[in-house]
Specification:
Elements lengths: L1 E3 L1 H11 L11 H18 L9 E8 L5 E4 L6 E21 L6 E3 L9 E4 L12 E19 L5 E11 L3 E10 L1 H5 L7 E2 L4 E5 L5 E6 L1 E2 L3 E8 L12 E3 L3 H13 L8 H22 L30
Parallel strand pairs: 9-11, 10-13
Antiparallel strand pairs: 1-15, 2-14, 3-12, 4-7, 5-7, 6-7, 8-9, 8-14, 11-12
Helix pairs in contact: 1-2, 1-4, 2-4, 4-5
């Protein structure tokens, strides 16, 4: 992990293309233009699955009788809490409604815009007792105890989901929730059909908030976990103190330099080739790190007598 600031990445990119000398600082107009390009680049990277370094686990509460939810800033997937902030640590003392999870954005009087939960401290999130405790934030704040609202960011897509049901006999039980497309959702005749908990979800990635459609309509309070392709957070200011995963500093610096070359009139072919090669290699290392292996297909033992449980046995005989 590396700690840096957007202005440091911008100065490195400008030095790489010869638009800034060592020790120089860009003027405010240049810095702001480069900052806008930097955030646009991160926004574009969010569309490339292997440039996103983590799958976002969104926890949210389903209330009885409600099967449609909005997700994103201003949506109803989030929480209302009582808490305080000291530096980059949020301490939650009470959960009024909803559920907490990593990635949620915080809103409250005096809280810096763009403040988000980056990891768990003593808390584990959700809509139960695990929500009480500490969380780590991306930006430093000073906030005396008071009301805070949180909202989950709008995901690009949902890959999988589970519903967590709490019973008095077995504790928490997780059941899979199928992620279906629009055509499958349209085939459901009675979309308000009641059930104990949802078995399927259709996600409409509308703007500015996405829409979650669950089926059947739950008749009890449950906690849903959505595993999403999330959007890379954009930087709020030039002087944000940010912690990036391994390799991202170089990928951002040279990719930004690659985009800035035309704007600064840099047309030296050798220099352009070097910058483009460095940017491509840096992004490739990030993608290799983020790449996930394909899941192995597994079969029940009753189908694979005397053979391995993976799919390889199909090549030499098929089902028994």
């Amino acid at each position: 992990m590396a700690t840096t600031q957007p202005i440091t990445l911008i100065k490195g990119a400008l030095r790489s293309i010869g638009a800034l000398a060592t020790g120089e600082t860009p003027d405010s107009d240049t810095a702001n233009d480069c900052f806008e390009m930097l955030n646009d680049m991160l926004d574009q990277w969010s569309n490339q699955r292997m440039m996103v370094f983590a799958v976002q686990e969104v926890m949210h509460e389903l209330v009885s009788g409600q099967y449609i939810y909005t997700i994103g800033p201003g949506g109803n997937v989030g929480s209302a809490i009582t808490g305080s902030i000291a530096g980059t640590v949020l301490t939650v003392t009470a959960l009024a409604s909803g559920a907490l999870s990593v990635g949620q954005l915080l809103t409250g009087s005096g809280i810096t815009s763009g403040t988000a939960i980056t990891s768990y401290g003593t808390a584990t999130g959700g809509n139960g007792t695990g929500a009480i405790g500490t969380y780590n934030l991306n930006l430093s704040n000073t906030f005396a105890s008071g009301s805070i609202t949180t909202a989950a960011p709008r995901p690009l897509r949902i890959n999988s989901a589970i519903v967590r049901v709490t019973t008095s006999v077995a504790g928490s039980l997780d059941y899979p929730v199928a992620v279906i497309n629009l055509e499958d959702y349209e085939m459901i005749g009675i979309k308000t059909l009641a059930g104990p908990w949802p078995r399927a979800v259709y996600y409409q990635p509308s703007e500015p908030v996405g829409i979650l459609n669950y089926w059947p309509n739950p008749n009890q309070v449950t906690e849903v976990h959505l595993f999403c392709d999330s959007i890379l957070n954009q930087f709020a200011t030039l002087t944000d103190t940010i912690t990036l995963p391994q390799g991202f500093n170089m990928a951002i610096r040279f990719s930004l330099a690659e985009l800035l070359m035309p704007e600064f009139g840099k047309a030296d072919q050798g220099q352009m080739a070097m910058i483009m090669a460095q940017a491509s290699e840096a992004r490739a290392w990030v993608k290799r790190t983020n790449m996930q292996p394909l899941q192995t297909v597994m079969f029940d033992d009753v189908l694979t007598v005397k053979r391995g449980r993976d799919a390889g046995w199909i090549l030499h005989g098929g089902f028994n």
